[in-house]
Amino acid sequence: MDQAQIEIQVLGSLTQIDASDWDACACPEAAEGRRPDDPFTTHRFLRALEVSGSVGPGTGWQPQYLVCYLDGQMIACAPLYAKGNSQGEYIFDHNWAHAYERAGGRYYPKLQIAVPFTPATGRRFLVRPGYEEIGVSALVQGAVQLATDNQLSSMHVTFCTKREAEIGRALGLMPRSTQQFHWLNDSYERFDDFLAALSSRKRKNIRKERRQAQGFGGTIETYTGADLRPEHWDAFWRFYQDTGSRKWGTPYLTREFFDIVHHTMADDVALVLAERDGAPVAGALNFIGHSALYGRYWGCTEHHPCLHFELCYYQAIDLAIEMGLARVEAGAQGEHKLARGYLPTETSSLHWVADPGFRTAIKQYLDAEGAAVDEEIEILTSYGPFKKTQVEEQE
Questions:
Q1: Distance CA 68, CA 316 (A)
Q2: Which residues neighbour 115 within 8 Å (Cβ) at sequence distance 6 or greater?
Q3: What is the average pLDDT value for the chain, to the nearest integer?
Q4: Strands 174-184, 327-329: parallel, antiparallel or unpaired by DSSP?
Q5: Is residue 274 within 8 Å of residue 307, measured between CB atoms?
Q6: What one-character-per-residue DSSP string does 48-85 give?
Q7: Residues facing 175 on adjacent strands
Q8: How far apart are CA 318 and CA 214, in angstroms?
Q9: Cα 325 to Cα 57: distance, rounded to the nearest angstrom
Q10: Exposed / middle / buried, residue 154 (Cβ in 10 Å: 0-12, 13-18, 19+)
Q11: To 5 degrees, how large is the angle CA 261–CA 262–CA 266?
């Protein structure tokens, strides 16, 4: 196909894009009745961010959705944002910004292809099946051209798939490797099957933590779909505000975001609540993909030993086993996850930098960082809770 036929547009709102067109690129599997592989790139999730005011003016995330048309049909799109800071990204480039600005450059604004506030791996170049090659190429060229035309310092693609990182490298972008902790389902039928794969000491420790947590004086319930009620979100909002104010100063998501999710994505979420005397005292919010459970937010109004581990990690494992999901992605950072069965896993991003000298420096930095990440993953995996033969098989 002649790539010159492709029309690229930059749109400031998802109201300008039909949901069926976007989702035909973002989650074509949903048209076959399957759950979306990635709930975060669906039109309804990104629209919830926008309508709720979680992104847009004053947030540091200004939508600039990139869409590509061929003969009048949308063949590709990307959740692109103009960024006035580096908040809510989880692939940290603050030191790049400081270095560039110390040298007299202007790092912000920059462009970011990402799902705001969501450190979960998924496709970032959303392409309708059958148009993969020309669609990805058009999106990359479009994003770079937009940055160039507006004299922006850089363009970044965060938490993309490994395959996208390989394609991006071939198209001239710089790949970056980081790591998270994921739990992998080795065809377990119940939690005890998972425990049996661990060393004796780690197995005993997890059982001890679960007993402590479940003895907090109440019950633990998981709500999804029609079982979710507005009062559950009221409680979780209190938890989220407390955690957000301590972690980021100001919570990223607005209250309205959770209301919209309740009405448009109830089947895509699993809210785990610890309830005592009829009132929730702690909670963990998960989003459900076709193959993965994504742990996103946690908070509490009462502190009880090991309750965080139970709600965020062990209940997530229980749910993943019950639903037959391949993995649990427990979010960014947190080496404490290692002892709970979550192993280090490589994550990918892509970067384009306008200034040639700065680009050379970033490339050298990324090469050194990538080698360090590989070594860290190897070392951390060797300290994991699994029996030695189990670790060797997973490697």
A1: 37
A2: 40, 41, 45, 46, 79, 122, 159
A3: 94
A4: antiparallel
A5: yes
A6: HHHHTTSSBTTTTEEE-EEEEEETTEEEEEE-EEEESS
A7: 350
A8: 14
A9: 37
A10: buried
A11: 90
Residue in this structure with the two tokens 């940290």, named with its chain if needed: 92
Side chain identity, residue 38: D
By three-state DSSP, how is residue 98 classified?
helix
* pTM score, whole prediction: 0.94
Closest CA to 121 of 168, 160, 83: 160
pLDDT bin (cut points 50, 70, 90) of residue 392 is: very low
Place of tokens 């029309």: 7
The dihedral through the CA atoms of 18, 24, 27, 30 has a sign that is positive
Structure tokens at 160: 């993309």
Task: Show the DSSP H helices in the chain as ranges.
Answer: 19-26, 43-51, 94-102, 132-149, 162-170, 191-196, 200-214, 230-247, 255-264, 307-309, 315-323, 356-382, 388-394
Radius of gyration from C-alpha coordinates of the chain: 21
**Pair of tokens at residue 312:** 């965020």
How buried is 259 (Cβ within 10 angstroms: 0-12 exposed, 13-18 middle, 19+ buried)? middle
Q: What is the pLDDT of residues 228-280, one digit of tens each?
A: 999 999 999 999 998 766 766 678 999 999 999 999 999 999 999 999 998 99
Q: How many CA atoms lie within 13 A of 41 on its CB side?
A: 33
Q: How far apart are CA 123 and CA 48, in angstroms?
A: 19
Could you tell me if 114 and 156 are in contact, meaning their C-beta atoms sit under 8 angstroms apart?
yes
Non-local CB neighbours of 236 within 8 Å, separated by 6+ positions: 258, 271, 273, 280, 283, 285, 297, 299
Per-residue pLDDT at 4: 53
371/359 Cα distance (integer angstroms):
19
Residue 3 has which token pair?
Answer: 């790539």
36 contacts 289 by C-beta, under 8 angstroms:
yes
Question: In this predicted model, what pLDDT tens digit does every residue of 329-376 receive, in sequence order?
Answer: 998 878 899 999 999 999 999 999 999 999 999 999 999 999 999 999
